[in-house]
Amino acid sequence: MGKKLLSAVITGSLLFTFTAGYTTIDKPVSALSIIATVTSVSVEKDVIAVGESVQLELEWSTGAKQELFFTSSDESVAAVDQDGIVTGIGNGTAEITVSHSNYGSDKTITITVSEDVRESVCCNTSELTLGTKLYKYDKLHYDGKNIGMTANIVNDKGGYDIAYLSEEDYTLPFDAELVGIDGLTIYLAPELENVKYIDGRTLSVGDVIDTSSHLLCYDYHINKCVLPVFLPEYYEEYIGEGEIRVQDIDHENKTITLEAVEEKSEIDTLLTDFNALLNAQIVTVSDNRALVVFRPMVQQNGCVIEADKMEWGVYGTADTTFVTETLLNSISYDENEAVAYCLITADSPGTVCVKGKEITQYGTGIEFYVYMTVDENGNFNPDYVLLGEPEQGDVNADSAFSIADVVEFQKWLAAPDTNVAYLDTADFNSDGRLDVFDLCLMKRKLIDTVTDNI
């Protein structure tokens, strides 16, 4: 029998190599036959209070763990037992050393002890209440009772991270407040630089909510839903568009009802307030809407108070729709007022001329014209011109006669379906018809106008 050679190589994996004649067999050895060493030492909290204890957390290499010894460089500052639990004794700094019984280099960690530091605590979730303050390094422990199986924690992305407390205790990496309780789930709000909060306890009925904020500390009711907190993404999803306000609040039961209120323009406000409408300007503009207001006379006939009728007309090169109304406000027989309005909505750029004619019991009364323009975005320009009867030939309703009117009228004669603003002004020969004879007279007026300006 030949001589056997046994060699061992310890580099990463441990293999015994058997050599017998010219045959080599590699056989892996169990990791438990390798002696493990500590590769790093850490603690959840390296600044502790006097009397507070923390557990050293060790990372081992692969293999069988050997016996360790723990020592402190200054036991008047921090003491450590042989289970690796460090306890603060007095103010100062101490170095904790982890030594191996067999082989391996020592590992150290520095612990600071201060009487100014708050001692971390372990909180049973069933004992927490709304508004409880929690601090960095505190632990949350689910004790199997009524709340706290999971914790939803606001993160800096505007959503939540979830901690499953029923599986293991959660160590807070920040100061936080308990801001919501929803059955077995609790909600925590840490102080984050780019997250804004509104505390429901500070709100009152009618308050407007900043929808970029997290709404905390109360239950929030909307559309038959109840949520313990409101995130920015919830407002439109659960309430809708518009201004979000507090509709109702019950501080005793810690509940708030929210509503979405459509933002009203000045025009919307005027249309719901008779006195405001009565005192409004002749023209009020808001985006693609314009409100023209007129105050007609009011007659008194015995016990019947009647507002004079108004006839409205809207002309122009802009596509528009309009509604009209005459309102009467009777406070007493001796004190009564009326207001008529025309609300125009523009659907395209161009010119708009609004004609108002008062019809009294004696016939036609005041007649007026308001000239406006609509920009390329479809919005009314705030400037307007208020005139009496428009100038003859002003068919495009821009409050002035020019070559543009001649072009508009000529187009209309070629294609009568063309939208022309105010054709009444084109009947130059007053025969009740619009034809080329009117066009000739219109051109003559244009020549005379140009000549007069030279």
Descriptive labels:
5 helices, 454 residues, mainly beta, five-stranded mixed β-sheet, 10% helix
Give structural notes.
The chain has 454 residues and is mainly beta. It has five helices and 36 strands. Strand 27 (283-286) and strand 28 (289-294) form a beta hairpin. Helix 4 runs antiparallel to helix 5. It is elongated, with a radius of gyration of 43 Å.
Query: What is the general shape?
Result: elongated
Rg estimate, integer Å? 43 Å
How are strands sequenced across the largest beta sheet?
Answer: 14-19-20-16-17
Low-confidence segments, given as residue ranges, are 1-27
Distance between the termini: 133 Å
Q: Tell me about the biggest sheet?
A: 5 strands, mixed
| Number of E strands | 36
Structural class, from helix and strand content?
mainly beta
Overall pLDDT: 83
Q: How many H/I helices?
A: 5
How is the secondary structure organized here?
Blueprint: E1 5-11, E2 13-20, E3 23-28, E4 38-42, E5 47-49, E6 53-55, E7 57-60, E8 68-72, E9 78-80, E10 85-88, E11 92-100, E12 107-114, E13 122-124, E14 133-134, E15 139-141, E16 150-154, E17 160-164, E18 170-171, E19 176-182, E20 185-190, E21 197-199, E22 214-216, E23 219-222, E24 225-227, H1 234-239, E25 243-250, E26 255-261, H2 266-271, H3 274-278, E27 283-286, E28 289-294, E29 298-301, E30 304-307, E31 309-315, E32 320-332, E33 335-346, E34 350-360, E35 363-374, E36 385-387, H4 403-414, H5 436-453
Parallel strand pairs: 5-12, 13-15, 16-20, 21-22, 23-26
Antiparallel strand pairs: 1-2, 2-3, 4-7, 6-10, 8-11, 9-10, 11-12, 14-19, 15-18, 16-17, 19-20, 23-24, 25-26, 27-28, 28-33, 29-30, 31-34, 32-33, 34-35, 35-36
Helix pairs in contact: 4-5
